[in-house]
Amino acid sequence: MKSKFLIFLALLGTLPESAPTETVNKILHIVKWPKAQAIWAEAAQEYEKAHPGVRIEFSYLENEAFKAKLPTLLQSKDRPSIFHSWGGGVMYEQINSGVCQDITEVIAEGGFKDTFYPAGVQNFTYQGKSYGLPNDVGPMVFWYNKELCAKAGVDPAKIKYWDDFIDAVKKCQVAGVTPVAAGGKDKWPLHFYPAMLMMRILGKDGLEAVYAGTNGGFNNPDVVKAFQLYKDFAALQPFQKGYLTNTYPEAAGTFHDGKTAFHLMGTWDVNEGRMDAADGKGLPDEKLGWVFFPEVKGGKGKANDLFASLNGWLVARDAPKETVDFMRVWLGKNIQMKLAEEGLDMPMVKGTAEAIQDPFLKQIASEVEKSHWIAIAIDQQLGPDTGRVFNDVCAEVAAGQVSAEQAAKTIEDSWAGNRL
User: Fold this and answer.
1) Long-range pairs, 45-52, Cβ under 8 A, ≥24
2) pTM to 2 decimals?
3) Are 347 and 336 contacting, i.e. CB atoms less than 8 angstroms apart?
4) What is the pLDDT of residues 88-104, one digit of tens each?
5) pLDDT tens digits, residue range 228-244?
6) Distance (Å) of CA 402 to CA 41, 241, 343, 393
7) How many CB atoms are closer than 10 A to CB 320?
8) Tens of pLDDT along 203-213?
9) CA–CA separation, 116 and 112 (whole Å)
10) Please, what are the domains in the chain?
């Protein structure tokens, strides 16, 4: 019996050792730019080399596919450790559903949180707790084609008020130039118009009162006015033919193919639009310009009150401890400086703006620092339910299917049951 036991122990000694358990950090993102992905991969390799047994895995989903698939992914066993977020009501719902991790204490260690602009950190804070960190900010501006504007006799530098922009649209049409590109099928590109008109008319305090339900909420006459201005604008047929069946990438490509004079879009459109152009290059710097979304005469909002996509990352509930540790490298100043230098981002890390070389992003970054109000996209601010209603209504108004009053009432009816 004893000999059998000794043989058994000897056999155990000959068995191969089990492979060490690998810790995988999965990051779900919507950035398709190869240069950005290459810089991220560099950060991952640096971290993996210093932390044997840890693997960083980036996964890409196109913007609309991301929105559609994320809720299911977050409830699955294969949920990401980190996932893209715009903050706002969508984030609040994700936090309240229990899929996010409170990282307040861990990002405070070593002053990591303080390396970001406070407004960016605040965007991923809920009820005093941090659940994520900011990545970059993408303000919305009117990009314009210098050659087509010159052909139409339009000087974008003189567009100060909404009426000036309407005049520019009409001049383009008289000159045979399609005024504006829009990805109406995706709806969110259209929501920029009434959203920014609301900002310009109501101002910060007024818009916050609308969210709070004061003075009728979205039934406020100033909200109706914003939708009426948008409806009148859409009635001019300013967009490219078939815009309601075009996606954002298709519209971005249309503008960068030199087929429209203007495109209202975030700063990412410099890179995205060029990739989506037929030649993959788009408009060169010398043919491209930008102006702020104009003010509305008599309104309380200013031209440098920015409407922006404030992009960032949320950490999943069961993400491993190495996740935030990797963020210290990935979202650290060294990597973010490289993204800034390549003109890929306007990072939310302090001290990176000076590294931006792209002339357009450099100009806009300086305006971000001077702005007193940066509002995030309304469809994200209102959460998934009312945000979807807002976007649907914007498409319906553009198509001439509903009135400004009906649009405002539909949004208020939805938001009244979802106010946070």
Assistant:
1) 46/329, 47/325, 47/326, 47/329, 47/330, 51/322, 51/325
2) 0.86
3) yes
4) 999 999 999 999 999 99
5) 999 999 999 999 999 99
6) 47, 21, 41, 8
7) 14
8) 999 999 999 99
9) 8
10) 23-138+310-372 (3.40.190.10), 139-306+377-416 (3.40.190.10)
